[in-house]
Every structure is written in C-alpha cells, then in structure tokens.
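Archive entry: two folds, one per protein. Generate the first.
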Amino acid sequence: MEKFALYPGCVMPTEQYAYEMSIREVLPKLGVELIDLKNFSCCGEPIKSVNQMMTLTLSARNIAIAEKENLDIFAPCPMCHLALSETKKILDSDETMLNRVNNLLKDEDLSYKGRSKIVSILDLLYDIIGTEKIKQLVKQPLKDLKIAVHYGCHLIRPSEVGRPDDSENPQKMDKILKEIGANPVYYSEKLDCCGALLSVNLPDSALTKTGQKLKSVQEKGFDAFVDTCPWCHRQFDAKQVKSGETVSTKLEMPVFYLTQLIGLSFGISEDKLGLNLNLSPVDKIEVKK
C-alpha cells in the first residue's frame, strides 16, 4: 500500500462530505492508504490576494507537519493543491523567503524542508495508480453514459506552477472515465470557470457563470456532469437550482465527483459513496448491474 497524508482542506470536511466518503472508499481498493494527521489548517489560498505571506506560511506549516511524519501529501481539492504546490515552488527556490517562513514556524517546532511531494487527485489516479489498475477493478461499466467533464481553473492553471494536466487540452479525467466504461464528450465550454470565487463579491455573476455552463451541457444532451473540486461541485450541485433561476432555465443535470463514478463502476454501494448527499438529481443515472 502506498501511503499519503490526506490533506482535506476546509470545504471537503465541513460541507462536501460526499467527496471525502468516495475518496476513502475508492482509494484503498487501488492500493492507497490515507493517513490522517493532526493540526492541519487552511491552505490560505482564499486569502492570497489579501495577504500572500500568510498563505505561504499556512501552506508551509501544513507541508512541515507532513514532513515530520515522512509522508507525501495528497490534496484532493485543486485549490489546496495549488496553494501547497505554489508554496513549495517558491520556498524551494528562494532561500530568503524560506528562512522568513521558517522563522515564523519555529514557535510550533516546525520547519519546512521541501521533502514532501504534493499530489493531486489526477496525479494519484492517473500518474501513480494508472488507468490499467482502475480498469481491472471495474465490475459495473458505466456504459453509454455521455459525460461532460469539468476540470475547473485551479487544476490546470497557472501552468508555470506545474499543474496536474494540460491547461489547453486536459485529458486525464477523460481517459479515466473511458476506462470505467463512460463516454466523455468534448463541448465548447469545457474549460469555462464555475464562478465560485465570484460568490462573495458578485453572487449573481457567480450563479450566472454556473447556470450558463450547466444550461449548455443540458441542451447538448449530456447524461451527467463530473468534477473533482469541492468549490466547483458546490456551484454545480448545491447551487444548481438557484443558478438555473438566474439564467431562466430549469436545470436537472446530475453532478458527480469523479471518485463517485469510479466507485459506482467498482460496485461500491451508493450510500458509501455519499450519493444521498448530492443535491442534483443523481438518481436519474442507473448503473446496469
């Protein structure tokens, strides 16, 4: 079993429980052991535009906690993964900033050393585990399921930080879905933003972005919508009805986490994957047994 420290972030353990449930069900079957460490805090990414130094320090602190246990970090939230990855890039190349951050961490007997790798959901499923191993565990292929894949912004941008997939033509999620029998189909809005980060200052604009993307997907005849980000999922799943009202459309699009669909193809029960917690009409999708 490969071991990783699970970095849950803020949104997944406080709201998006289904993501964590599906992760904890699927990954052990693929040979991954998740280790829960104490004292992790926010990654700091949501406040980066206000206080970048605090974001660096918070992310460095979390990495240092994992380093103390000689563990690499699995960060399933793309926003958290970006914050941790950007911090690692900066501290590994800037000794002055490294010393400044470590000076702030020493009161907790912590020190960033740069030993731990930061692993995303796509790094883990596609690059480390591999699609062949995923395919071997499929018991109930998701046959003829036309899928709209949403990569989101933080999973593929900015490229200079080093992201899990190509910023212009991401394919890893698509390839995983093909291995579990689904049919991911290209659509012109594939790389569009979910609108989540506009929610605080421009809530109507955020809902408009969400509604426009879902409306297009629905009109194109997709069976389901898939993502890997708790921030994006909150928009497309929990706020689907409100976003539909914003764009004057009745939206009825089933929205799943990638790990939920993988779990269904493995024959894992819906309750263990948290499908009862999805607020979009996921019951419209029947997996042939």
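Generate the second and append.
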Amino acid sequence: MQQIGQAADDAAQVETNGYEARYQFFSINGKMLEHGDPLRVKRGERILFHVLNASATQNRSLALPGHVFRVVALDGNPVPTPADVPVLWMGTAERISALVQMDYLGVWVLGDLADDDRAQGMG
C-alpha cells in the first residue's frame, strides 16, 4: 500500500491534469511586495495582525524574520492557550489573529517562505 501511495506522490510531481489553479501574482492588503508603504513601529510596540488566506486552493505561509507570532485566535475564535510560532501556516480561507512584539530594529519583510511566491509579490 505504501508503494502505491509513493508512486502516486511521485507522479503528481511531474504529471498534471490541467485543472490546477495557478496564480500569477500575490498581495497583502492589495499590495505586492515593494509596492506598499511599510509599517512604521517603535521598538517594543506590539502589533496585532488579522490575516486571511483568501486563496480558494493554496495553503500559505507567512513569516516575519527575527520575530515570533503569538497566535491568539483562529477563524475568529480565541484559542484557549496562545502559542508562539515562527511561521503562520494557513489553510485555504483560514483566518489567524496573532500578536508580534517588535523588539528588533531594522526593516523586516512580512512574506511567504517560498522564494518564487515572494518574487510574485507575496510580501
């Protein structure tokens, strides 16, 4: 059974049926990477991010290098125990509310972990 599953996974990497949704561009708040104004914060400030993965077909990741997200709500519901995570992994149509403590000076890009997605504006 594992061999059948592995063969299907291998085939899926190279064969497509033509029905896969592909996206040419990505944005955050309607702005592509390098086309929006930066968030300006002071050291020590906390930012509450309300993030929605508006894709109907693709999971997304979001990271803010050097910082940690404290997940406080999922799909609008408070979590019983907030958790600190380095990356937000979002399924299709999933919403996450997370706090970030801005303790490090510099310019940081909130964006996808995948280089090709950032090149298409996901940041």
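Annotation attached to the second fold: The chain is about 15% helix and 30% strand. The mean pLDDT is 75.
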